[in-house]
Amino acid sequence: MDLMTLSALLLAGALAGVINTLAGGGSFVTVAALLFAGLPADVANATNRLGVIFQTTISTRRFAQAGHLDHGLALRLAPATIVGALLGAWLSTDIDVALLRQIIGGVMLAMLIIVIVRPQRWLSADGGAGVHPALRHLAFFGIGAYGGFLQAGVGVFLLMGLSVFAGLDLVRANAVKVLLVFLFTLPAFGLYLANGLIDWAPGLVLAVGGAVGGGVGARLTVWGGAPLVRWVLVGVLAVSGARLLLTS
Asked: How high is the pLDDT of residue 10?
């Protein structure tokens, strides 16, 4: 691994840690960095989970120390999310690499529209008390399946779910989000590892940057810096999505 690749992975990991903790979508940065490092799309998609584990470990601890983490809610939502993630991870281990690149690129550009068009409509707390528990668990099963399959952008869907189905404000939603991501990423990572899809060297470099970024992102969320990430996401989604679709 040359110095340029090493630096790119460290910076991508740190940036992704901040973005993932503030809102979501940081894996668009890290997957693109892993592809730049020469990893096949399926290996990049799997190896990215190592950085996610490091990020969420640090950011969960920061949120808990600040008193913003609802452990009970996270643990109630975790079973459905984890089962969905395992299903999604299993589906992604048997897919054509070129098709996976197209899926990642397409999702990036779709998420770009979501980020641009009135993001506060779903980032703000909006009740959730009247939602039937079965519907809530079904929604988080679906979010988990997406996260296990692709990971990139799952934080945005989790924020939507925690706002619509649980009525959390942005800071508390972010805290529960990072714990849920940690919980469902562990078994998904194990499945990828068992299938030989983890490239440890770039994954660990990415993880070091992600650990730093996760801590910074948690602090920025508590301080009210989440709106800033919207414009970062716009650039990342537009450039990376177009690049993947045009080079597939």
From this structure: 93
Write a three-state SS string for 48-85: HHHHHHHHHHHHHHHHHHHCCCCHHHHHHHHHHHHHHH
Q: What share of the chain is helix, strand, coil (3-state, %, to 5)?
A: 80, 0, 20
- Cα 200–chain centre separation: 19
Reported for 67-70, long-range contacts at CB under 8 A and 24+ positions apart, including other chains, are: 68/171, 68/172, 68/174, 68/175, 68/222, 69/172, 69/175, 69/176, 69/179, 70/168, 70/172, 70/175, 70/176
Angle at 139 between CA 137 and CA 143, to 5 degrees: 115
| pLDDT < 70: residue spans in the chain | 97, 115, 118-130, 224-230, 232-233, 236-237, 240, 243-244, 247-248
Q: Which residue has the tokens 């459905």?
A: 80
Cα separation, 204 vs 199, whole angstroms: 9
What letter does residue 147 receive in the DSSP assignment?
H
Please give the DSSP secondary-structure letter assigned to residue 189: H
Burial class (CB within 10 angstroms; exposed 0-12, middle 13-18, buried 19+) of 11: middle
Close Cβ partners of 189 (under 8 Å, ≥ 6 residues apart): 46, 49, 50, 53, 198
Residue 238's Cβ-side half-sphere holds a number of Cα atoms within 13 Å equal to 9
Residue 123: the pLDDT is: 53
- Per-residue confidence (pLDDT) for residue 3, from 0 to 100: 85
Model pLDDT, residue 59: 92
Residue pair 16/71 in contact (Cβ under 8 Å)? The answer is no
**Residue 154 has what pLDDT?**
83
pLDDT at residue 232 in the model: 61
